[in-house]
Amino acid sequence: MNILKKIVPCAFLLLAFSSTDNSADLLIKEGFNRAEIMYTDMINTEKDFNLYPRTTAADGSLKSTNLKDWTCGFWAGDLWFVFEYTKDAKWKEAATKWTETLKDNQFNKGTHDLGFMMYCSYGNGYRLTGNKAYRDVLLESAKSLASRYSPITKCIESWDQRMSWDGKTLWKYPVIIDNMMNLELLFWASKETGDPTYYNIAVSHANATMKNHIRPDFSTYHVVNYDEKTGAVLNRETCQGFSNNSTWARGQAWAIYGFTIMYRETKDKKYLDTAVKLADFFLNNKSLPKDKIPLWDFNVNQEGYTPLWNYQKEKFSNPIPRDASAAAVTASALLEISTYLSKEKGKKYRADALEIIESLSSSAYLAIPNTNNNFLIKHSVGSLPHNSEIDVPLNYADYYYLEALLRYKKLENNLSLQ
After folding, report:
1. N vs C: which end of the chain shows fewer Cβ within 10 Å?
2. Is the pTM of this model over 0.85?
3. Average per-residue pLDDT in the chain?
4. Pick from 399, 282, 379, 394: which is nearest to 329 by CA?
5. 3-56 pLDDT, tens digit each
6. What are the residue ranges of helices labelled H in 130-212?
7. From 48, 104, 166, 178, active-site residue
């Protein structure tokens, strides 16, 4: 098969670019050059289209995942982005094969993650190919996602009823900040069908999130537990953050990106104001390192923040793990935010995004071929409280890094980001 052939030689020296290329152009070209090299090796490693490369396993090997995993759609999305940039049919072939094995997820009503799973895969595929069969799958996926909405809580249930991560609280109707990312699928479905139901569910969910997940300083709670019978908020806790009152870095990134989507789709200024203030919390935080790649939680080891899990400070404090995935998500969102503000204000957020992209493109975070299990970005954290995926590559870090590169390229060429 074409996709199993070597596409480019395994070299990682910068290409010889013309003198007219600026530094951003160099970053974009080298990022996608690196992706072609490393993803070719990835394809030669994982040849089963029903398995989706996710991260590095505990033994150092490639860890792929199955159809039900929330990250399953990112790998196909990574490949669609490489196709979008290169226009090379090899990448379209690969993206198509890993996308179409996700088809059965359109009927999956047991998760809120269908936006991640299906819009990142089928959504990009439909955008780039116009394949009508992809449209049908996406619409069914939107129906499945909408089925998790409750008019009582006024939001979409993230997980089915379960005990909290520490086993102390029954989460009756848990909603996590990540869920803001899945609303994009509903907006798309509303535009495609003319049915306002999807739109109204997305708006209702976002409004509840604004009210209940966002603190006065525009930091965010990870989990809000609702009473499914009354809609009352029972608890505000965390699952992947340092403590219940801390700000988990990737959760903050999801919020920034999610409320940016809300403004794009509704043009309601309250969502843009919210996205900007969430972004300012991220960018102006005293714990944010100079390279703008955040610690995995903004409040780790700080006074007044007490982890209720078995936190081993000595093990995770020298150094404190970073989360490059949170940085990648934020960079992509900042680029879109910059297009909705005045030229002067927008310039600031675009510059902040470029700083993050430059950091992610440096040798500190961008892997070289034959390392990192052929993922691009190093140093992400899945869930430190669960002792899971600590300081490893993650397929969604790659996804939002490549999206940010493409978005920057489009802005440089005065093109729409959508």
Report:
1. C
2. yes
3. 94
4. 399
5. 433 333 333 434 333 334 577 889 999 999 999 999 999 999 999 999 999 999
6. 132-146, 183-193, 196-212
7. 178
Report the C-alpha gap between 39 and 376 in whole angstroms: 9
User: Is 391 known to be catalytic?
Assistant: no
Active site residue 88: no
Q: Return the structure tokens found at 179.
A: 């869920």
Sign of CA dihedral 323, 178, 302, 390: negative
* Token digits of residue 98: 């890993």
Query: Quick check: helix, strand or coil at residue 329?
Result: helix
Contacts from 92-96 at CB under 8 Å and sequence distance 24+? 92/128, 92/129, 93/1, 93/2, 93/3, 94/3, 94/39, 94/43, 95/124, 95/125, 96/125
Query: Catalytic: which of 25, 48, 113, 136?
Result: 113
Structure tokens at 169: 């609280």
The 3 state secondary structure assigned to 53-66 is: EEEECCCCCEEEEC
Closest CA to 296 of 252, 334, 256: 252
Query: Taking Cα atoms as reference points, which of 326, 262, 259, 264 lies closest to residue 295?
Result: 326
Q: Is 286 exposed, middle or buried (0-12, 13-18, 19+ CB in 10 A)?
A: exposed
Centre a 10 Å sphere on the Cβ of residue 339 and count the other Cβ atoms it contains: 16
Please write down the long-range contacts of 86-90, taking CB distance under 8 Å and 24 or more positions apart: 86/32, 86/36, 88/7, 89/2, 90/2, 90/3, 90/5, 90/7
Handedness of CA 151, 156, 161, 163 (dihedral sign): negative
Amino acid at 162: R
From residue 166, alpha-carbon distances to 163, 171, 184 in Å are 8, 11, 31
Q: What percent of the chain has pLDDT over 90?
A: 91
Residues 6+ apart with CB under 8 A from 170: 161, 162, 163, 164
How many Å is the Cα radius of gyration of the chain?
A: 20
Q: What angle separates helix 183-193 from helix 196-212, to the nearest 10 degrees?
A: 160
Tokens 């219940």 label which residue?
Answer: 244
- Tokens 């969102």 sit at which residue? 333
Please give the structure tokens belonging to residue 413: 């060429």
